[in-house]
Amino acid sequence: MDRITREAARHGRSVDEITSSRRLRRMRKADWSRRLVQETRLTVHDLIWPIFLVDGVNKREPLPAMPGVFRLSPDLAAQEARRAASLGIPAIATFPYVDLALRDQIGSHASHPDNLINRGTRAIKDAVPEIGVITDAALDPFTDHGHDGILRDGIIVNDETVDQVVAAAVAQAQAGADIIAPSDMMDGRIGAIREALDSEGFQDVAIMSYATKFSSAFYGPYREAIGTSGLLKGDKKTYYLDPANSDEAVREAEQDMLEGADMLMVKPGLPYLDIIHRLKETFAVPTFAYQVSGEFSMIKAAAANGWIDGERAMLESLLSFKRAGCDGILTYFAPDVAEILNA
């Protein structure tokens, strides 16, 4: 008996006595055993890649606040869709940077059949028919005030906004979108979109509900990417959810499911893992999270400063979504992660 063991024996029970010989480190001792008992896995099939569109041809504009992310003209977006498909990424979500001359108070250009979103969809689908295309029918890229809805006398008017969002959703389905993902958070939008899609013969086009989109501080780089940060008048607290409210998030999700949503999304992601878990446990439907621009940029910035291991932090953050209950994740890291997982 060595000195340390004798000291331990004098001061109390042995570790085997304390644990009843249940040593939980046994299955962590080797790589093979850790892999054997791993409870949660991240795969390339969990990834949705959000990309930004810009008018033009062969145009690639870097976004300083989002290192490695670009605005892409539709032809280059189609090339990137080919790359995504080759990596096994199931779907792409598109967001447009719309020329200021095309923006107005009511976001009228959102429903134009040849707007940037719809041209991007057609270009991607022509190049890679097998990849999924997810489009957002919200009005913020198309309004001159940066809000997701129509602004009247300082108020975002719900029902008039829903009419415009529905028109945008139908135009997106006509262009070839597979999933409509309205992020505007207006009451009744899901049911109205479902009825309109069905009446126009698009029963197979699904709806991903941004059921729980929170009034968050993490959207900054995204708003710069779509050109709304300098336009926004006021804030979005009258229609986005209060970050303090989880019961309200459940009610929003329940309402959207009753109206015909096929899947739920939580946005942002990491600050709302509890919401993801609660929705998955409550509704047992396909549940997604959007790892938003601020989350992406924080990891990138910390890694660039040498404060964290960027690759490990990226993978750990995505694994946390899966552990919370996500079926898939919208993340700007998608192609980088896919390359790592495919290696």
TrEMBL record:
Q: Where does Mg(2+) bind?
A: 252
What is the reaction catalyzed?
A: 2 5-aminolevulinate = porphobilinogen + 2 H2O + H(+)
Q: Can you cite an annotated GO cellular component?
A: cytosol
Asked whether the UniProt record includes Chloroplast among its keywords, one would answer no
**InterPro entries, sorted:** ALAD (IPR001731), ALAD_AS (IPR030656), Aldolase_TIM (IPR013785)
- Supply the enzyme class, top level: lyase
Q: Which domain of life is it from?
A: Bacteria
Task: List, in alphabetical order, the Gene Ontology terms for molecular function in this entry.
Answer: porphobilinogen synthase activity; zinc ion binding
Give the EC number(s) under which this enzyme is classified.
4.2.1.24
Q: Which SUPFAM superfamilies match?
A: Aldolase (SSF51569)
What does UniProt list as catalytic?
213, 267
Q: Which UniProt keywords apply?
A: Heme biosynthesis, Lyase, Magnesium, Metal-binding, Porphyrin biosynthesis
What Gene Ontology biological process does one annotation of this record name? protoporphyrinogen IX biosynthetic process
- Entry-linked PANTHER family: DELTA-AMINOLEVULINIC ACID DEHYDRATASE
- How does this polypeptide assemble, per the annotation? Homooctamer.
Family to which this protein belongs: Belongs to the ALAD family.
Output this protein's name: Delta-aminolevulinic acid dehydratase
